[in-house]
Write a structure and sequence with these properties.
Cholesterol Oxidase, domain 2, FAD/NAD(P)-binding domain, alpha/beta, single chain
Length: about 575
């Protein structure tokens, strides 16, 4: 194996978290930082000439090659696992920027009680109401601690939005259920679409509280505190699964890479497939990877930061034998525990006139949080936590939106009658979505699959995950809300209660997977401490949504970056001055 010259800091993964950590360390220290990314480089100028819906949205050009590495899935520990051979329920990005290149840009903060959910539920409900298998945990940090970091991320991205709780004052038109904010959003809300206007007027009549979805897509030209300038959105509708062709959507490549590319103490090495972290005694000495030429390489480092996708973080720790694997039967061990995803239920509304829905952007929408968390829940609904409801205007591109039809409109989805009907309903559809909070359960976890391997012969990560009765009731509950809104808005909708079905890897639920290397206040209940430093190796930091003990209802990206910046402060201000365990 080829051994390279040591570096001060090596970071595994070139997405939001990896590049954010690199930007902080290279800015505030003289340490040399190396980022290893297995995918290619992405650039804004490349997107402008290659915005092809078939290529990016259907063939999923931005995603990891599932032939090289995938995951396996089973519904319970009693079931056999099978490989996921076609992307469906989530879409892991590949290349510099990761999923931060192809995301929609929804930029919500988590509500305060999410960070102390175990305590909150115990205070609100008697023990007999809480599911026996519930495994939610307090994070060990509070919303108040994270609030300055949220603001830091919002300024870096230039998030567009409207405050609803500004220094304790509730403001109509913003999210009045959000945690206290010290500052208004950096840029105003995006423009409202026709569908958003109809939705907003209707939900107000139902006494709900609509507000614009906070978006990492600029509503106007903006220069962030780092001096990075980006233009306002053109509302082309090519956001999800695409990189922004003009740079209006905040992505790692247009916010962080411009800074890093100018720093002499930074290096990015693409085509580097990390396969192991090497640990000796109580210290990680470096990483082993395979380069583009197929060579086996060992990169020594003083500090190792694991900053890849949630599933990759957990898999690399497992392959490296760092941490104690979780055993759901005994409840012992921590590595792999508390796997969560996200509940997503949607309803299409059909109108008798065009909606001009081809204009939009990934995070363009109006939301209501009246049912988020346990807002408005009376205790008789059969659920402990609800979700956020959005009317979205992401832009209905020609291919994917073509056959959105009322149920029963045609006998089959093929032939001349289907084409004619699809053209009739083209641009007469609006969509409302409920993103439900997914709590953690003891039976949902990750480990290494004993049978299936990747292209190198290394075991794949195995997901053991299924919906519980609680998630089924969340979906049923959402349809009751959907029906009321559809009736008020005056649109035709198929609002029958959704069928009960197990978790499926074929149905998209968002790319928001959390857990497996969760944070906490003790070694017994977590993989990393509240600074995201590994309990078993003080020079190893594991950043990303893998640290989340459970998922809130909304997009996790803003929270991922907030805890990343907090971890960077701990690394630079504490560990580098006095190397050792911080907790």
């Amino acid at each position: 194996m080829k051994r390279l010259k040591p570096v001060n800091v090596v970071i595994v993964g070139g997405g939001w978290t990896g590049l954010a950590m690199a930007a902080e360390v290279t800015r505030r220290t003289s340490l040399n930082v190396l980022v290893l990314e297995r995918g290619p480089m992405h650039r804004t100028k490349d997107y402008a000439s290659t915005m092809d819906e078939l290529d990016y949205s259907i063939r999923l050009r931005f995603m990891q090659n599932i032939a090289d590495e995938t995951v396996t899935h089973r519904h319970s520990a009693k079931n056999p696992s099978v490989p996921v051979r076609q992307y469906g329920s989530f879409l892991p990005g590949s290349g510099v920027g990761g999923a931060g290149e192809h995301w929609n840009g929804n930029s919500f903060r988590y509500s305060p009680e999410v960070f102390r959910l175990a305590s909150h539920l115990k205070e609100r409900y008697p023990a007999t109401v809480l599911p026996e298998s519930l495994a939610v945990q307090d994070w060990g940090i509070s919303y108040e601690e994270l609030e300055p970091y949220y603001w830091r991320v919002e300024r870096m991205m230039g998030v567009s939005g409207k405050a609803g709780n500004l220094r304790g004052k509730l403001i109509d038109g913003g999210n009045i259920f959000e945690g206290r904010r010290e500052f208004e959003y950096p840029t105003p809300p995006l423009k409202r679409s026709y569908f958003m206007t109809l939705f907003e007027e209707s939900v107000k009549k139902l006494s709900y509280h609509p507000y614009p979805v906070p978006a990492a897509t600029l509503s106007e030209a903006y220069r962030n505190p780092d001096g990075i300038s980006r233009p306002g959105c053109a509302y082309c509708g090519y956001c999800e699964t695409f990189g922004c062709m003009i740079g209006a959507k905040a992505q790692p490549t247009n916010t962080l890479m411009p800074l890093l590319s100018q720093r002499n103490n930074f290096e990015l090495r693409t085509g580097s497939w990390v396969r192991r972290l090497v640990k000796e005694s109580q210290r990680v000495t470096g990483v082993q990877y395979t380069n583009e030429a197929g060579e086996e390489v060992f990169q020594p480092a003083d500090v190792v930061i694991l900053a890849s996708f949630t599933l990759s973080n957990v898999r690399l720790l497992s392959l490296s034998g760092i941490g104690t694997p979780y055993d759901p039967a005994s409840g012992k061990g921590t590595l792999g525990k508390n796997l969560t995803h996200q509940i997503m239920t949607k309803l299409n509304l059909f109108f008798d006139h065009p909606m001009n829905a081809f204009m939009g952007t990934g995070a363009l929408g109006t939301a209501i949080s009246d049912f988020d968390g346990d807002q408005a829940l009376k205790g008789t609904e059969g659920i402990l936590r609800g979700g956020s409801l959005l009317a979205i205007s992401t832009g209905n591109r020609p291919i994917q939106s073509f056959d959105t039809l009322p149920p029963g409109a045609v006998p089959s989805n093929w032939g001349s009658q289907w084409k004619k009907t699809a053209l009739t309903w083209r641009d007469k559809v609006g969509t409302i979505v409920l993103f439900g909070e997914h709590m953690s359960y003891r039976q949902n976890f990750m480990d290494l699959d004993p049978t299936y391997t990747d292209k190198f012969g290394d075991p794949l990560l195995r997901l053991t995950l299924d919906w519980t009765d609680h998630e089924q009731r969340q979906r049923q509950f959402s349809y009751g809300i959907f029906k009321n809104i559809a009736r008020e808005i005056g649109a035709a909708a198929h609002a029958a209660a959704p069928p009960v079905h197990p978790y499926t890897v074929t149905q998209y639920q968002s790319t928001h997977l959390q857990g497996g290397a969760i944070m906490g206040t003790t070694r017994a209940n977590s993989v990393v401490n509240t600074s995201l430093q590994h309990w078993d190796a003080p020079n190893l930091w594991v950043v990303g949504a893998s640290s989340f003990p459970q998922n809130a209802s909304v997009n996790p990206t803003l929270t991922v970056l907030a805890v990343t910046y907090r971890a960077a402060d701990a690394l630079i201000d504490q560990y580098l001055k006095h190397p050792g365990a911080l907790a």
